[in-house]
Amino acid sequence: MTKREQLLLRRLREIQHSDGVKTEHLEEVAASAFRLESAGIRPPTVTPEAIDSWRRFARDESLDQRDLVHLESIILGNGLRPAFDIQGDSFGVLPSLWQDLNDRRAMIDPLIRGIGRLDLTGHPKLTYAGTAFVCGERRLITNRHVAQLFTQGLGSGVQLSFTPGITPSLDLKQEVGSTAPVAVQVTAPVLILEEWDMAVLEIGPLPGNVAPLPLVASAPAGIEDRMAAVIGYPAFDPSEDLVQQIQIFRGVFDKKRLQPGRLKGVQQAESFGRSVQALAHDCTTLGGNSGSAVIDVETGKVVGIHFSGQPLIANFAVPTWALADDQLVRNSGVEFAA
């Protein structure tokens, strides 16, 4: 068995344990996907053959190569770590595996309105840089590696400037099936941290229905295996598997998605040549998700800023509570929840 296959089976065991997955859950997902396909929306990736392979996996029976292919399809697409379209600043009724999200819609929907896509004008290669979200009065959080696509310098204040010729802007909309923007001006870089992959930007006035997302200031107890949701703008990544990306996102990229999964506690990760204690999660992400809010579904608060990942191992986010201890961050205008 290859290293990738070993990682696949380990991840499936973790998901089976954290989510309490049963065969009937996959049958529900498959039925939901088939209805959507009939309406011309998306293909079903949890097939009857994949469900049979899951049964063999759950019974600890011997698996052949076809089973492994089927089991990987269960993690992807409309399976156990999906990506759901955001439309009308909300999401549709989700399968019962994600019932907590359905139940907390009233908490999640206002957060969706404060998450946007950082668009670029004048960049020689890119039309957008990544994801960002409102974190205070006229303040926006994203990743350092995202901000460095259009800024110069490290630190704060006069040490920072926009790259000449490149103009960033924020679009709080860009949903599947809609090109109507909700545009906000990005007026200045405020802070670009050295230790963490995090940056703060100044923005213009916001629409009246948009408020800062609540950022957790203290490390939550018992966070491992809590349901999480990454909300951002996954982009096509030529370095990742083409077929898998098309399965998950139906060939539609750069649009706002809700990507649920589980928090996996604090783990060591690399960030700008340093080893940091990052918040791990297993939500499906792509490059455009850099800067996405990682939300603890139980509380409806932001616990991390997604910045990187390793396929079939973990994705990583900057823990918000680590930022709350940084006086530079506090002075930059970032607000933290009680």
Automatic annotation (TrEMBL):
Pfam families: Trypsin_2 (PF13365). Keywords: Endonuclease, Hydrolase, Nuclease. It comes from the Bacteria. The keyword Transit peptide does not apply. The keyword Nuclease applies. GO terms for molecular function: endonuclease activity. This is DNA/RNA non-specific endonuclease. It comes from Methylomirabilis oxygeniifera. The lineage of its organism: Bacteria, Candidatus Methylomirabilota, Candidatus Methylomirabilia, Candidatus Methylomirabilales, Candidatus Methylomirabilaceae.
